[in-house]
Write a structure and sequence with these properties.
This protein has 3 helices and 4 strands. With 83 residues, it is of the alpha+beta class. The protein has one domain.
Length: 83
């Protein structure tokens, strides 16, 4: 899938490739670990500066770094057979 924004990895949350705007918001909100980001994943739209599309991008990035048995797409938990 093509990306229409520049992405970069940031040292605090290794493995995530996000738009610069997302990193700016996460820094401002003092989100520095994957665990902190996972904790707010269900309410990302409530964070100032994160619009619905950016929230979707963040959730997709989290799904990519989650262990296969914990990956969810479209509300469905993917099993190991879906690799």
């Amino acid at each position: 899938m093509p990306r229409f924004y520049d992405t970069c990895a940031a040292p605090p949350i290794g493995g995530l490739y996000l738009p610069s705007l997302a990193w700016d918001v996460l820094r401002r909100e003092k989100i520095q670990t994957l665990e902190q980001l996972v904790d707010i994943a269900d309410r990302l739209e409530q964070v100032e500066g994160i619009e619905p599309r950016m929230a979707q991008v963040l959730r997709e990035a989290l799904a990519r770094v989650a262990p296969p048995e914990e990956q969810v797409i479209g509300g469905m938990l993917l099993g190991p057979w879906c690799a």
